[in-house]
Input
Amino acid sequence: MLQKCEGIVIRSTAYGETNKIVTIYTREWGKVGVMARGAKKPNSRLSAITQLFSYGFFLIQKGSGLGNMQQGELISSMRTIREDILLTAYASYVLELTDKCTDEKKPNPYLFELLSQTLTFMNEEYDLDILIHIFEMKMLNSLGLYPILNKCAVCEHTDGHFSFSIRENGFLCHRCIEVDPYHFDISSATVKLLRIFYYLDLSRLGDISVKDDTKKELKRVIDAYYEEYSGLHLKSKRFLNQMENFRDKI
Output
């Protein structure tokens, strides 16, 4: 039976000389894999819609295994992302993180909106570092991770100067700082932004101006947290780090 869905191509792999196996994150069904026959041919009607980052409507013949893509209608090709190597690096990390954090055929409309909004903001050239950190914080729940960011993880006080503890899974206030000698000393701005990134609806994102030092603190804390708890080692993340190091040296 043919069914229509709204989705974003998060992975595309060549299959034989002319076909592709495409992974789409959809609003209706979550993550699904489909066969796109003939999509590698330059004149194929499926050529454009099966490219990475493509956002559109898909008509799919669903079955017990891989479905078959019959046709697609582009909403956005995310052209700006495709034409900039740095944007491509950031967006590829978002796609791979989505892929690794989700199971097949488990609908999650909230996650679809998060992915769609993040790529759209990237395509419109919002601050890439901020978008990445927001996305990383919001994907934690999909990994079964729930950091304590609204109070001290030990004494539960909501006031005071806070540090971040990987071991205690969240903030430590100044009263409990000795509980973890390896805590991260962070600024009040970083404390505020970690909370905002975790709790704020991305659709309400306005212009956020963040100092470079604060960005470095955010990256240090979030990277360490992912390293400790996520179990993920993503190629796109390594490449992104290389790109950032190169950019910093320019």
User: Anything to note?
Assistant: Helices lie at 79-82, 85-101, 109-123, 128-139, 188-199, 212-229, 235-249. Residues 163 and 185 are 5 Å apart (CA to CA).
